[in-house]
Amino acid sequence: MDKQRKTPPSWSTKFLAWFLKEDYYEDVQGDLEEEFNQKAQGIGLLRAKRWYTLQILRLFKPDKVKKIEAQNSIEKETTMFKNYFKIGLRNLWKYKSSTVINVIGLSTGIAAFVLIALFVKDELSYDRHHEHAENIYRVTVKNYTTDGDISRQWAFASAGHAKLLKEDYAEITHSTRFYPWAFPDLEYQEQTFRGEPVIFCDPDAFEIFDFKFLAGSEESAFPDIYSLVLTRASAIKIFGNDWEEKNIIGETVSLSRDDNEAPFKVTAVIEDMPDQQHFHFDYLAPIRFVEMIMGEDAANNVGGNYNWMTFIRTNPEADIPKLTEAANDEFWDKYIGNFDSGSAARDFYDFEFQPLLDIHLKSNLEGEYETNGSIEQVYIFSVVGILLLLVACVNYMNIATSHYSRRMKEVGVRKVIGAFKSSLIKQFLSESLLVVIVSLPLAVLLILWALPYLNEFMEKQLSFNPLVQTDIFMGLILLMVLVGGLAGLYPAVFLSKINLVQALKGEQSMNSSKWNFRSFLVTFQYIVTIGLLFAIGVIESQMNFIQNSDPGFDRDYMVTLRLPRGDYSNETFRSELLKNPQIEKAAFSSRIPTGRLADNWGSRFYKGDSAIATSFRLPVVTVDKYFLDTYGIDILAGENFRDGMETDLVQDTMVTGYYIINLEACKALGFEDPAEIVGQKLGYGPSEGRIIGVMDDFHFESLHSPIVPTLFLTRDRYRRISLKIGAEDIRGTLDYIENIFAQFDPESDPNYRFVDDLFNDQYQKEERLGTMIKVFAVIAILIGCLGLIGMVGFIIETKLKEIGVRKVLGASTQNIWMIISNRFLILIAIAFIIGLPVAYWFMSDWLQGFVYRTNISFMLIAMPVVVATLLTLAAIAYQTLKATRVNPVECLKDE
């Protein structure tokens, strides 16, 4: 003990050995240590150590420092790595079964991760191609109830908001409105194009968004109100593939919709809108044309008609929260003030300036121009992708450490001949990286094979070409290094720590640590598997719940199509269709169930002579007198729309129309008995009407939303017709519908859809999510089962003598199977206890997105653990049967 206390500092001695020339080292180190011992006895140990360190530092001089031969060091490292890879290749070839399992597991995990990464990258890239994307905001309007709760939030604003916001607030440098003009017809020479996606906008649109001009320029795009900017696709559509060789600037095309028709001149051509943009169009025209049609009052309106998609661009220094607060404090008082009822407009309306980059993934407001993505779905896929990659890495770790006994003597010999722990870690990390390098080409092939199916399923245009896309190439290299390091780190550290003497004797026992880190890794695999299986069960249960739920209307054998364009009476078209006996009923409407409800005007309910503004959302649908009967919806009180109502209106001078409301609207207006509200007066927008009936509730929108108060009225103009057809000769009936449609509109396609299909389309995101989770769960289970089979095989290999002894003593195959299974069953139980609550929390949160949802039953909870247990027992049984068929004599004979 006394000698140990007088030992000089070890780090100082190591430092001396590192830098001092070898010619000096032996003499200098010996002299210093001898003098150190003398001083330790004379001046004390602590002061002697300080003296010793100081002397070594004084020796650190250029003439005594070794020459560091970097090149030799690099050559040595290179030689060692060549040796590592050579040994690694030999081991891959020698242990083919484990190599196949590892390569399949890693390649599948990498392929799944990359495919998910491509999807996530695409979703996160929306609208980022615009130069000023971070300073662009969409103006949305919130509407509040009298209780201060949000009633609705429009994705659009009023016509006058853009101009006035820009004038009042210096932070706003540009503003524009986009107004879709209900898909007008376009005519050029002898060609007619029906229902073209034309959007009208302000000139500032070219300052806010980046449009690449292929012909014409930003300055010449809108010289007057009859200007028309085409996209490349629309230019090809109208003028042919050689449009660039033609001088199409100045060509005249005609746009018509309803009773409005006007000639427009082509002023520019821009590049097509990229897929990664939250709204698309084929034509741009000046919004002044729409203002001219609607009139000055509609163009300057600030308190209704929320149909104008409005964007602003701010200066980079703008404080958006302060700007929003200022606009909400000042704008509504300045331009609206108080309603007729005396209520202040600012108590019912607020602006929200929504960042452009948030719209695609974080917005699902009323009136969205296109269906947006879901940030929750991006999060789910991201987590699943990472988990699959981790499962593949864990699989490699388990197998690599399971057959450690094959490498013990090799590790022992390397340690005897001077291998450091760091050298052994480098060796095993190199082998891990080699497995990843072998797996990567297979992963690339899997990606190339699966990507077309993913694109078709997700309706994407994802691309994967590492040789051209440098970001993907660098990502794969980084991923290769990351996976190689992650998968190989634990096996490398584990194998490098094996005891030298036991390694040479081959005595390192797997059971020396029964619940080691490898048990944790196996448990992690079970947690992921159980979680994914539980998610599948919940999603499938919710989808079945939706399919079997009663929406409150008849959707079976119901066909809907848009109305033909042209000069004809709706009744004539309906009569022609009903001549076919297979078409039982027909009804016109502005919207159909499974669509989205919209309301752009406020409503008020009359109590005596007093008009009270309603505090709830009241969307409107226009229908004819056949609508309720066609869809099988009952009238609870009052009457349906009927012939002769125009005559009644002449006598009822206090109203301009008649309304039917649903039961939910009746309750919202304070009437429990539907019969009591019949005959009451209700105002909607600029119109006054009388309630003549109350219909039963039904799900007009999806089950994501509650049934809301809804107003139904009748008028001459409709957009769609719904047809109840018979179950026989469906193909013949559809052909008949097409023929009749062609008689009224020979240049258009009816684009009919079954309402049942439209109903299912409402849950397309959930269907896609469920299918993708199924695929990922299968991948996770495949990787886990392969690893389990390999790991159990190696465990049995180390227990062959024990199995042989047990067989000699009379143990059956079932006894041996249960002994091996016990440990894994405990791990499954632990995974169930940890993983199920986490999965339950996630899936319960997902179900909150549905107002009407399934219950999480005991079967859903039990199913994942039962499946995991059965798969595990089957994998163990397979390997156990192989082992028990071996003659015990072969197991017990000496090596």
From TrEMBL:
Q: Which InterPro entries match?
A: ABC3_permease_C (IPR003838), MacB_PCD (IPR025857), Macrolide_Exporter_MacB (IPR050250), Permease_put_prefix (IPR047699)
User: How does the protein's chain sit in the membrane according to the entry?
Assistant: Multi-pass membrane protein
Q: Which PANTHER family match?
A: ABC-TYPE MACROLIDE FAMILY EXPORT SYSTEM PERMEASE COMPONENT 2, MEMBRANE COMPONENT OF TRANSPORTER-RELATED
Q: Where is the ABC3 transporter permease C-terminal domain?
A: 383-499, 775-888
User: Which coarse location class applies to the principal site listed for this UniProt protein?
Assistant: membrane
Q: What is this protein called?
A: Putative ABC transport system permease protein
**Any idea which GO molecular function terms this record carries?**
transmembrane transporter activity
